[in-house]
Amino acid sequence: METNNEFNRRDFLRVTAAGAAGVAVLGQSAKSYAAAKGANDKIRIGGIGCGGQGRSLIGAFTDNAADWNCEVVAVCDLYDKRKEMGQDRAGGKAKVYHDYEDLLNHPDLDAVIVATPDHWHAKICLDALESGLNVYCEKPFSHTPYEALAVHNKVQETGLTLQVGSQHTADGSYYAGRKALQEGLIGKPLWTETGYARNNPNGEWNWTIDEEAKPGVNLDWNKWLGSAPKIPWDPDRYFRFRKYYDYSGGIATDLFYHKLAPFMIVFEDEMPLRASAGGGKFIFKDDREVPDTSFNVIDYPSGHSIVLHSSMCNSMGVPDRIHGQKANLDIIGDNKIRIRAEKPFMEEFKDKHDGQEEIIIQGEDRPDHRKNFLDAVRGLDWLHLDSKRGYATQVGISLGVYALRQGKSVAWDETKGVIDAGPDDFHGGVAGKFPPSFLGNSWKGAA
Prior knowledge:
Blueprint: H1 4-18, H2 22-26, H3 30-35, E1 43-48, H4 52-63, H5 65-68, E2 70-76, H6 80-89, E3 95-97, H7 100-103, E4 111-114, H8 118-130, E5 134-138, H9 145-158, E6 162-165, H10 172-182, E7 189-197, H11 221-225, H12 235-239, H13 251-266, E8 274-280, E9 293-300, E10 304-311, E11 321-324, E12 327-333, E13 336-341, H14 346-352, E14 358-362, H15 369-377, H16 387-406, E15 410-413, E16 418-420, H17 426-431
Parallel strand pairs: 1-2, 1-4, 2-3, 4-5, 5-6, 7-10
Antiparallel strand pairs: 7-11, 8-9, 8-15, 9-10, 11-12, 12-13, 13-14, 15-16
Helix pairs in contact: 8-9, 9-16, 10-13, 13-16
C-alpha cells in the first residue's frame, strides 16, 4: 500500500520539475493556488489561541523566523491577558484580535495556528480553509471523528496544507518501522503496545486558575463555550478544560494522540474496526470527568491490534513495540529501531542477518515538525501528519473515549464514516450534540 506522504513526495518532485505548470498537474483549487508560497516567500502566520501551547507555537515560529522565513503577524484570544501574552511572545508587533473570524481576514495572511481547546479545533480549521488559509492545528485533530472527517474533506476540496501538531511523527524511527514491515522483517504484525505515563500528585491538568479572569469584563466565556453546552462561568472548566468531556477527551486526546499518530505511519493510515477500553478515576477524586488511568485496545481490519496504556499516577511506561509472529520491533529513539527474532524463528533470522539475533536499523532524519509544515506550504516537502493521517488517528482515539464511557466496545463503519455505537441517545450522552450542528452535511461519507 502506498502512503499519502509518499504520494506527496513524488508529486512535489514532479511539481519542482514542471515549474509553474505544477499547479495544473496537481489540480490545485484557486484558493490553494493563492495560498501557495515560493521557496523564498515569507509565510505570514496568525496565532489563534494564546494559552500555554498557543504561546509555545507562536514562540517557536517567532524564534526561528529568520531561518524559517516566517512571521507571526496576528494573534487572537478570548481572554485579554492572554492576548497580550501572545502578542508579547510574537515579538510585540503582532496585530491583536478578539474574534478569530476577524483574524482570518488579516491582510496578506498565509496560515494560522489553531491552539484552542479541542472542541473549537474543527470549526476554526473549516473556517480557515474556507478563507484560503493553510493550517497548523495542534493535536488532537478535533473533538469528534465526524469533525475530523469534515476537515479532511475540506482539505481535499481546497487543496490547502493542513498539519496536525503531534511532533512524534517527525521521528524517523516510524518511517524505518514502516519499511521493515513492508519487507516482512517481523512476519505478520499481531499487536502493538505503546503508552504515555506521568505521576502528578497534584492531579493532572490541575493548572493554575488565574483569579484575574473575569467573564464579561476581560474574558468572553459565552463564546469560549462554542458548541459545548451553555453553563455559568466555571473557572475550573476554563483553565483546566482537559478534565471535562465537553471540551476534551482527557488522556486519550491529550496524550494517546501523540502515540497513535506515529504508528499510523507504520500501519499506513489504516482505519480502525472497533475499540474497547478500561480504566477510571483511581486516584484523583476532584470534579474531573476523565480517567486518571486508561487502557484502549483498537482493532484493525488487517488483523492487528494497538494497545494504548496510560496513567497520570505512575510514571513507569511501556515500550513502543510491535509484536510480530517472527520478531519484535522496538522504537528506541534517535531515529532507530531494533528488531529481535522470536525463538522459534531465530535461526531463520540469523541466516538472513549475518548470524545476528537482533539488528538495529537507522531511520532518516526528518525536519522539525513545525518547519515541515512551512516547507509543505512552499511545496518543498510532504507532511508528517496530514489530514488523512490526522483523521485515521482521531477515529481510533475517539472510539477509545466512547468505549470507556459506554462500558463496551464501539465499532466504526468506514463505508459510512459513522460510529456504530448502539443506542440512538448514545452520542448525545457523550459530548453534546453529535455531530455538531456547525458541520451540516460536510462530515458525511468516508474519506
